[in-house]
Amino acid sequence: MDDWVRRCATLATVMELGVQKPGNVSPAHPKYPCFLDGAVAIADPLGRLASDYPAYSVGSAIGDCVQAMLSAAGENTHLGTILLFAPLTAASKSRSRSLRGALSGVLSSASVDDAVQTCEAIQKVRPAGLTDVADTALDVRNPEAPREIRGRGLTLVEWMTIEVEDNAISGEYGSDYQLVFEMGLPHLLRGLRGGKGWSASILQTFLILLSNRLDTLILGTHGRGIAQQVSLQARDLLGENGVMNASAVSDFDRQLTAKNINPGTTADLVVTTVFAALLSSSKGGNAAALRSFTR
């Protein structure tokens, strides 16, 4: 099973990187090779998590993924992806429950230690674009936050969901991945089953998510007004049947790239949607199902 998850994680990240998503990393981006290095690096800790969970915890895996990413890529390429992939990976070990049902159990059982390890891992990365937390003692930018988390006895989900309104990843922790399972996955599968292919389906899912939720990274780096404008522009690219104008998408990409506006959190949600689709298709180690699903 660990090899299955390792392959699914790498496949999901590489597939998502291969799609030209407005403002985000794609093969034409100068940092594309760096992001490929990060994508490959996080697969091994995730494979171990799939094999050894719960003895090897979600928090430990997040910490090891971050260290592997930094060692391979030299910078933050996949922090949001790591935060979303790790609980899903642990959930993939269950054979008796749906992926989302198992995910709910993983999240509810995540501990104070998981919270402390995750906070420390994020602090190593020092990511840009973090949204504000009212309780500054628990803000990941506070060096004393891990000690504060432990002192208050906060579990991973309790800490992650202190502020969820503007933070999509925190919101996913508090809703058993509502955006991934109730918006991303249905649209991705609808595109695939309708014959759109992976690239078109991933791009369409990206635009749908971006149009329905203000991107956390844009909020943190450029403010609410810009985030709202970007979401409205994404909505304008989607017709009644989700049909997109390729030229308009390219223009949108150039506009965002020129202004250094990156919907990076939306990309994290999309790649997690792809990961969830692959894990669901291959549950139980069905190689034929995975090959069929990914053609």
Notable characteristics:
mainly alpha; Triphosphoribosyl-dephospho-CoA protein; globular; disordered C terminus
What's the tally of helices? 17
Name given to the CATH architecture: Orthogonal Bundle
Number of domains: 1
Net shape: globular
Structural class: mainly alpha
Please estimate the helix content: 55-70%
Number of E strands = 0
CATH superfamily name? Triphosphoribosyl-dephospho-CoA protein
Distance between the ends: 21 Å
Instruction: Using the CA coordinates, give the radius of gyration.
Output: 18 Å
CATH topology, which one?
Answer: Triphosphoribosyl-dephospho-CoA protein
Largest sheet: none
CATH class annotation: Mainly Alpha
Order of helical and strand elements: HHHHHHHHHHHHHHHHH
Strand content range:
under 5%
Uncertain runs: 284-295
State mean pLDDT (0 to 100 scale): 93
List the helices and strands and how they pair.
Layout: H1 2-17, H2 32-41, H3 43-52, H4 58-73, H5 79-91, H6 99-109, H7 112-125, H8 145-152, H9 156-160, H10 168-173, H11 178-193, H12 198-212, H13 216-222, H14 224-236, H15 246-258, H16 264-281, H17 287-293
Question: Can you walk me through this structure?
Answer:
By secondary structure, the chain is mainly α. The longest helix is centred in the last third of the chain and has 18 residues, at 264-281. It has helices spanning 2-17, 32-41, 43-52, 58-73, 79-91, 99-109, 112-125, 145-152, 156-160, 168-173, 178-193, 198-212, 216-222, 224-236, 246-258, 264-281, 287-293. It has one domain (2-290): Orthogonal Bundle (Triphosphoribosyl-dephospho-CoA protein). The chain is 67% helix and 0% strand. It is built from 17 helices and no strands.
